[in-house]
Amino acid sequence: MNGFTEKNGILYVDNVPLPEIARKFGTPSYVYSASSIRSQYNALKSSFERALPSNWQPLVFYACKANSNIGVLKLLKTLGCGLEIVSEGELYRGLEAGFKGDQIISTSFGKNYNEISAGIDAGIRQFNIESWEELEQVNRIAAEKDKRTAVLFRLNPNIAGGGHEKISTGRHDHKFGNNEEKIVEMYRRAAGMKYAQPRGVSVHIGSQVTTVESFRPAYESIASLVKRLRKEKLDVDRLDIGGGFPIAYEKTGALLDLNSFAKWVAEIILPLKTEIQIEPGRFMVGNAGVLLTETLYIKETDSRRFLVVDAAMNDLIRPALYEANHGIIPVTSNKGRNTVAYDVVGPICESGDIFARQRPLPEIRKGELVAIQSAGAYGFSMASNYNSRPLPAEILVDGDKVALIRKRQNVSDLIRGESLPEWLD
Ligand SMILES: Cc1ncc(COP(=O)(O)O)c(C=O)c1O
Fold first, then answer.
1. Which end of the chain has fewer surrounding CB within 10 Å, N or C?
2. Within a domain: residue 423?
3. Residue whose CA lies nearest to ligand 1 atom number 4
4. How far is CA 74 from the centre of its chain?
């Protein structure tokens, strides 16, 4: 059994019924399916295996901002992924999960001293550079340690991508990357540096890129830049073509035809004869997770019927932040029940704490379990303690095997590290 399926009227994760998980670990909990992560990775790999020769396969660097639990990272490592990181904390997680430095790339924006230093100490494979000053900083810190480090330059191709304004990164008015002119200038200057070694270019136009045709012009702009750099006798042997591959949320079915996508890479990037890197995050884990939550109350007002669940916007902020529409389904089959329009809300003191408005669902009773779907990416990794709510548990299931990969916080965890000023006694 793969992922989330219904069996005898009950929703299962792999071979395990979700009510069993709720009994054992409580709610709200994030529940991930290892088989589903594996099948996403294999689908991506095999589309490339069909489109590209075996010695030009892209290296996959999982973008761990999507889900950075070390249990999930370890699973992706065993599948053959490297890791894309954006902070010192993510580097730490990656190393704890068993990644070697040369399996890790840093794409962080605004890299601080400590993260550059830790990255160089760990011997990471490359830094993707955002500005001239950042490049100088990397070169300087590498010089302090007398260690060379590879750098790529992030292109901003001025192409709209990303399923929401807040996760689009490829237009000139966004803070990310640089235009072609600037990159050529930085590349030229970097070629004379002793410690930062320019190896290539990167691009990433956004996350949840639902206008998938946008990948093609983004890759074409990379190709034109590489030709220009090579004309100037600047070496380019590594291209990082980013992540952003979309998944379906409320509706089922794939948004990205992986075979066409791999063909674009074969047509546009392969002829440049460089190493190819991709950085998928959401695609690998998004549909492999649910947020399992219990119905606390059904509250009826003059105009609305509210389904009040025990998960809230602090646990899953995507609907509030990106107006994301996650699928929501009861865990036990409701055949024969009426369909009712609910506003599905959490207990937080904000009207924005809402998972769905006027969502038609089978009539649900107090105490029933509900699964908020496609919550494996940018779910727990964006969770907070807002309203002093302890962070939920995370559980990884693989076939019959169940592992608690993060313990639920308790209230004493909430004030860990805080202290009372002694002068207030
Ligand atoms: C540089 C970079 N690479 C990769 C990703 C992963 O994107 P996604 O999860 O949509 O694949 C992001 C996400 O913000 C990113 O900023």
1. C
2. no
3. 243
4. 15
Residues with CB under 6 A from ligand 1: 63, 65-66, 84, 107, 204, 207-208, 242-245, 279-283
Residue 322 CA to ligand 1 centre (angstroms): 15
Best of 86, 166, 204, 240 for a ligand 1 pocket test (most atoms within 8 Å of beta carbon): 204
pTM for the whole structure: 0.96
Tokens of 31: 């529940």
Give the domain extent around 140: 34-282
Torsional sign, CA 283, 288, 294, 297: positive
The residue from 173, 302, 349, 418 that is catalytic is 349
Distance 310 CA to ligand 1 centre (A): 30
Residue ending a domain, among 265, 282, 299, is 282
The mean pLDDT of 43-70, rounded to a whole number, is 97
Helix (H) or strand (E) holding 16: strand 16-17
**Terminal CA-CA length for the chain:** 59
Each residue's pLDDT tens digit, 139-165:
999 999 999 999 999 999 888 777 778
Please report, for the domain that includes residue 363, its CATH number.
2.40.37.10
Q: Judge contact between 201 and 272, C-beta under 8 A.
A: no
Please state the length of the chain.
425
Instruction: Clarify whether residues 38 and 24 are in a common domain.
Output: no
Annotated catalytic residue 349: yes
Q: State what percent of residues in the chain have pLDDT above 70.
A: 99
DSSP letters, 92-131, are HHHHHTT--GGGEEE--SS--HHHHHHHHHHT-SEEEE--
